[in-house]
Amino acid sequence: MKRNRRPWIESLAAWTNCDPAVLELAMPQLGQHDPAPSLRQKLAGRPIRATHIVACHHCTLARGAGRFVQIYSTHEQVICLRHRLWLGDGVTGVTDQLSIRDSPEITTAWHHHRNLITRHGRSGVRKAFHIAAVINWRWYDQFHHFTAATDIYDTLAANQPRHANSHAVVAASLYPSIVDLTAVMASPRWAEIAHSRHPDQFLDRISVEVTDGWQPRGASDPLRDWMRSDWLPGFRGSDAINASKPR
Q1: Half-sphere exposure for 58 (CA within 13 Å, toward CB)
Q2: Element (H, E) at 16
Q3: CB 246 within 8 A of CB 232
Q4: Tens digits of per-residue pLDDT, 161-211?
Q5: Is 62 in contact with 54 (CB distance < 8 Å)?
Q6: Minimal CA–CA distance to 35: which of 24, 27, 45?
Q7: Single pTM value for the model
Q8: Closest Cα to residue 168, out of 109, 86, 63?
């Protein structure tokens, strides 16, 4: 009997009764390193192989796919809502996925994040989210952030001590503050105020909603730097979550 020499993904497509192009974009492991632009456009928000996360292991085990499965993702895909697991920044494997059941603020922020996309559009929110993430992480590096984030961290670390001090638990703790800052930055009206000669109204809102009443000051503050220079992130693909750092 002759050996079947057709590409293996075509054989898999025949077995699963699924289009090869859909299979190629269903999981990073099944796709090419850099799919053709025409293929990337078939599934909105899944542009390149670098844009992926580790899927919730409870979901993949329930479907018989094993524990470690990578999936293409968009920037708001940071939690599994069904199993209340953190899937976002800092998660490189199944053991990094931590429970967020005791921190409902994270789930509330995720709903807010999705609503912002509906209101302002995916492109604008993605840019604002990345900028807000860089600013919040720099605040964390400078002084370990504000009360809302530290309270979430304390809860997560106390209930799951093996995740204490991990990048994932810090990222999950910062996420609600990042979304709150994203909400202001993604608004064209508030962004215009921030870059105007009279940004006091913008700073007042930030102090109430994000920074515990403190107004960022000084040239070294990351929010002030953004207000002054209006830097934008560079992205690979239409909705990459692994964006390059601003210059």
Answers
A1: 12
A2: helix 8-16
A3: yes
A4: 999 989 999 999 999 999 999 999 999 999 999 999 999 999 999 999 999
A5: no
A6: 24
A7: 0.83
A8: 86
What's the rounded Cα separation, in Å, for the pair 203 and 152? 24
Map tokens 């919040």 to a residue. Answer: 136
Give whole-number Cα distances, 57 to 100, 110, 198, in Å.
Answer: 15, 19, 49
Helix, strand or coil, per DSSP, at residue 72: strand
State both tokens at 176: 């609600």
Q: How far apart are CA 72 and CA 50, in angstroms?
A: 8
Tokens 């999936």 map to which residue? 71
* 151 alpha carbon, distance to own chain's centre: 21
Query: Residue 198: what residue type?
Result: H
Using only C-alpha atoms, the chain has a radius of gyration, in whole angstroms, of 20
Centre a 10 Å sphere on the Cβ of residue 36 and count the other Cβ atoms it contains: 10
In this predicted model, what pLDDT tens digit does every residue of 108-165 receive, in sequence order?
999 999 999 999 998 899 999 999 999 999 999 999 889 999 999 999 999 999 999 8
